[in-house]
Amino acid sequence: MANVNTGELLNFQDYSPEHNGRSARIDVEAVHTNQYNNVMTNSNYTYEEPKTVVEEQEAVPQTNHNFWTIEYYQKYFDVQTSEVLERIVSSVLPQKVSRNYFDERIKGKPDLYGPIWISVTLIFTIAVSGNIANYLQNANKEVHWRYNYHLVSYAATAIFCYVWLVPLALWAALKWSVVPDGQDEIETQASASPTMISLFCLYGYSLSIYIPVAILWTIQVSWLQWLFVLMAALVSGAVLIFWLLPALKKSKYSLILIGSILGFHFLLASGFMLYFFHVPNTVDPTTVVTNTTVKV
Amino acid sequence: MFPAGDVGVVEGEMNIPSHGGQTGDSMEFNTLDEPIKETFLRDLRAVGNKFYHVLIPREKTSLLKEWDLWGPLLLCTFMATILQGSTEIADNSNDGGPEFAEVFVLVWIGAAVVTLNSKLLGGNISFFQSVCVLGYCLCPIAISLVVCRIILFTTQNSFLFFLRLVISMIGFAWATFAATKFLGDSQPEGKKGLAVFPICLFYFILSWLVVSHNNV
Question: Is the CB of B129 less than 8 angstroms away from the CB of A45?
Answer without folding.
Answer: yes
